[in-house]
Amino acid sequence: MNVAQLETEWTVVGDAKSWMDALLAAHGGSSPFASVKLEQRTQSSLKRRDLTVLDRSGKACLTGEVKVPWAADGASPFVETTVVDARAKALAAGSPWFFTWNLNELVLWKTDSFGDLGQPRGFKTFPVSSLRRQTDLTNPRFIAELRDGIERFFIDFMRVFRGETDLPQRAPDEYFVHAFDSFLAWPVLGAKFELLRRDGNASQRGAIDRWMRDAQGWILVGDRSELLGRAAKFACYAIANKLVFYDALRKRYTELPSLEIPEDEASGEAVFSRFGGFFDEARHVTGDYETVFGNPGADIGSRLPFYDDNVVDGWRAFVRQLDRFDLSKLDYDVIGRIFERLIDPEERHKYGQYYTRPEVVDLINSFAISKGDAKVLDPGCGGGTFLVRAYARKKYLAPRLGHTALLETIYGTDISPFAAHLSTINLATRDLVEDGNYPRVVRRDFFALRSGGDFMRLPRDGGTQTVTVPRFDAIVGNPPYVRQEDLSSDQKAEYRNVARMGGLTPTGRADLHVYFWGQALALMAPDAKLGFLASSQWLDADYGFALQAWLLENFRIEAIIESRDEPWFVGARVQTVAALATREADPEQRDNNMIRFVELRQPISSLLQHDDTTAGQLDAADRFRDAIMD
Length: 630
Ligand SMILES: C[S@@+](CC[C@H](N)C(=O)[O-])C[C@H]1O[C@@H](n2cnc3c(N)ncnc32)[C@H](O)[C@@H]1O
Hints:
Protein name: site-specific DNA-methyltransferase (adenine-specific)
Radius of gyration: 27 Å
CATH topology of the largest domain: Rossmann fold
Strand content: 15-25%
CATH class of the largest domain: Alpha Beta
Distance between the termini: 73 Å
Family: Belongs to the N(4)/N(6)-methyltransferase family.
Structural class: alpha/beta
Domain Type II methyltransferase M.TaqI-like: 409-569
Bound molecules: S-adenosylmethionine
Number of domains: 3
GO molecular function, one term: nucleic acid binding
Keywords: Methyltransferase, S-adenosyl-L-methionine, Transferase
């Protein structure tokens, strides 16, 4: 970096000081702070830009260090060496708080609640900007973002200082989630930039569209730049996902080499090949995990995280951070949660990717899964919450069933490869040690499943075995909420044909979830259970009447449960209802059945109180189910 570049960077830090000064002046006597000091020094090769805030008694109350995102040590404000160094300085200055800031994101830390990595830490993150290169520092748009971000942070810090609010203390798994998110911001930014550039070329644009539409199952509506941003994010998280899982597998398969990118590796293409080598090795050594590692590599999604050479440092920083964590000490139940946070609420709404609260999942499973060996399917399994909770429930019902036996009865499909990764990882990490750790999760359109048809191939005694689609004892889940307006006429025609096989003929106005019910029936055993959470519109809207009539003709509806108190999907804006039904061929049984319409007026977590153990959670769900059924 030349002197002129350094000057520009330092100017920004100087600006940050003057923005803080201006806020102090605006608050006049009501500000708890006396002044902001800026130190810029170059010690041998170390460039330091330190900011210190002094309180009214002249003592340091906040110290902090600024890095730039295009420098190796600035890939994220969570780079461990930077954080530890910044804390040491805070301790030396007697400052109760400190921050690390890589211009794009700022993290405020609490000096005394800061354990080693793997211990709880108190901190809060502030998104600031999305700078990609040095020249952005002269762009007024970015300067305005920086100013805005610093002001928001500083006002918040005043409240922390006054004791009006505190920094949340986060457990190691939560820390991991935040750091993970933060480290990926840089590769995502680079990938988005490259996608936007390539999108200008007609043939590349066509290939990008095909990937988003066919491989991800997205509906290509809305703002193009937003859509490409989402593509960049998904592609990078899918790679990161594989890296996390690879790292976890190394506990069991010690022959797998550790993840490393040599210092002299400078091209994105080389990193792509290096990671590809790791993943091939993992597939080879484990003989499995096709769903996770089996990406052919030619597809845009697996390449675009590496289009931009600037991201190499970001990936290097990411794998280093991964290496510092002992993933085996994290609670793997949260892995699905880690990834669900990645999709922001706006996107979820648009693409129907919501994830269901675990208590609701337990309640639905409690109705639907009554035996440890029941064959269960979630047809749009997302991050795997229904499947993982089904695993826990089956183990609870039949404690002697081992990991392999449990996995043999739990099936998941999802049209999104990302979701299929998540569910596979989430199930496989229940037990990484047992042989035969093969989750039955595939990336597949649910409407393509046929009873008795091929489901997937799995390793068996040195060869492979074909797993066929069984008759399921329970089909549970949260079918996607995609409004009929967003479905193409081809899609609707195809889905309608399949739903008809289950005897259901939805009207043209039906939402996507309605077709799921019909297809589900086609795959169910004679007295199987269905537990679907869906938008409650089908109880009132015209298109729902066909579904209601069809349910009454094929099922004994046990209960319809709705909450008046809270949404049951993270980020969902629609009212949801859980429908619980048993397949019933006998018309008399169906006619004499009483349906329980249940309206919850308290949060489900207060109705299903438990002692935080898995058994306690499942037991609470069973008790509540019994109360409803009595
Ligand atoms: C509402 S989410 C539910 C996720 C998960 N069951 C949960 O509750 O946490 C719906 C899922 O269905 C998937 N999906 C959409 N269309 C699909 C299709 N035709 N076949 C299989 N999965 C599909 C989406 O990718 C999404 O992950």
